[in-house]
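Q: Hi! First time doing this. I have a protein sequence and I read that you can turn it into a structure. Is that right? Here it is:
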Amino acid sequence: MARETLNTRVTRLEHAMANLAERHVRLEEIVGQLAEAQIRTEDRFREARKIADDRFREERKIADDRVDRLVSAIGELIRRLPAAVPRAESK
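A: Yes, that's right. Below is the predicted 3D structure, encoded as structure tokens:
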């Protein structure tokens, strides 16, 4: 195999450098796209979390209201019991 001339080597290196530069630009574009996708994903998770938290708070409020009404109804039932029905003594 014939030895490459210095000029041929330089030309080959120039092509290789140009190829690397193009790939570097493409890699930067891809990294940018990935960063944007990550931001969108985090935004979607944040929104989903907010919706879940809001739903949980609403369901908890409903449950608390139901418990309050139940406790009140039990208290009213006990208050209305006839005197003949024995009641547990409070300590």
